[in-house]
Amino acid sequence: MTASTRSVGAVLLASAALAACPDDSGPPMSDPTDSATTSSGAVTSGGDVDTEATTAGEPVPEDRPDVPQRTRVERLLAALDAAMYGCPERAWPDVADNYRTRQVVLTSEADDLAWVWNDQSGEGTPPVVTERELGELPDEWTSYFNVGELDGVKSLGISLDQTQAQNDWWLNQGGILWPDFAASLMFHEGFHFLADQDDWSAGDGSRSAPYPEPWEPRYLRRQLIQALAAELEAEGSAMTAAAHWQARLQSEYAAEMTAIRSYDCTEGSAEYVSLIMSAIAELGCDAADADVLALARSHLPDGLFLTDGSVFDSDLEPYELGVVAGLLLRRAGAAGWELAVEKGAAPADQLLDGVVPAPQPDDPAVQAAAQEVVAARNEAVATEIEPMLARMKDPTYTRVAVRFDWIAGSFGVGGFYYLADDPLQSEVMQSFSAVFSTPSQVTIDVTEQTVLTGVATPCALPQGYSIVLTVPTAALTITGSAATSTDAAVSFAALAVEPTMGADNLPWLCPIEAGGANGAPAPAPGNLHTLRHGDPPLRARVRVDPAG
């Protein structure tokens, strides 16, 4: 198994949601009904009662014939008990209080059930688990993962169905599954959102790759990662080589390294914590640190936390650098390195500080591989970005500006890019899919459309929050101020809008709930770009809040 599903699947989807939640909270969720049942210790899953006692930090071997086998849900809840309640400070300092006052919601559409771990309103010895009917929760909690509030408590939702599909795919490819994808996701995203990573001062940056993308930085970053991985295998063998590749990156691509450093801190630490928590969940809170490190290192060849070197992807680099540099810093017993990460000192930068580089020859084979991979990616990305740029200039399309923080739950994206040849270096999200919910709960469905983001529009919404969708004008109907789109890629019904024209005399729709058209002129009657009017629009799909 050489491929990593993090390349365009789990990691991009997961990390995208961090960008989607600038206030790290999401909309408050309505209270569930009182029909929920609570339990402490043993939990149920699909009607099967777990007869084994599971205590945080005391995992029960799964291979003992005299021990009842736990269901998947029970194993995941036991992992949470140990790693995120029993001893989360074993993975990262000063996070225990946050974890112990937050919740994780495991959801299964197949079973129509949800398990609220560490339910803050449940009775019993914490961490209490509450089993509920999934239909009691808002739709957002069926997302791949979701961050929001449940019963007024910051909570992380994880889909058992979608993560099981990843498990199945990985196993069908011949991969070694460790840990369960649900576990790695809840530990990674839990660190982002439940441990208050938004309080860090890691600085601003961008995870976007340029389009078209040069191959050289990907080659150098891959050489750095491989050198640190070699140092993990044989202590003292590759630190000076790693310092060489790091020095080249900082001298030859200083601007890109500055831009990506904050993600080396945030994503790198979250992936490192995910790996360490996975080991702690298996070994228990009383395990020696050497054993935790050994177990974590033993699973790096599996490909889930570290690829084999054939992947040259700027999105993956912060994750993998965080894993290898974090393990090396932990092995070295470096004091206070985690706090330094929180203040913007990337793990690899700390690790290599003061290491004298030893000159290294370039590897022609790796260079050729990097060129081939990046060239193929540029070609593939062009098939998404170039049509989007054409639509942005096409008078038969209408541009619709929406707010980033209207995204409900997580979203999918094939890659983050910026237009290298654009003086403004406009940001692009490739193959973007999401469900938006406006404050009045009008739903906008976006499926696999490449979009511009964070760009200026003729609408009133702040530039930093903007996502620009493109819709064939023929698929739009406007009645009064309500717009409906029947386009397969972008659909909505009864969206309150103000039509306007951009500086290039092309049509835009500005949602009124995002501030409207900012005083820009509306399309003139009879203009080529005038939107089609017709019968009353389809009824808006509205989620009803039982709290009113």
From TrEMBL:
Chain intervals for the UniProt region annotation (Disordered): 20-71
Top-level taxon of the source organism: Bacteria
Biased segments, Low complexity type: 33-48
Full protein name: Lipoprotein
Keyword Protein biosynthesis (UniProt): no
Basic and acidic residues composition-biased segments: 61-71
Record organism: Nannocystis punicea
Keyword annotations of the record: Signal
Phylogenetic lineage: Bacteria, Pseudomonadati, Myxococcota, Polyangia, Nannocystales
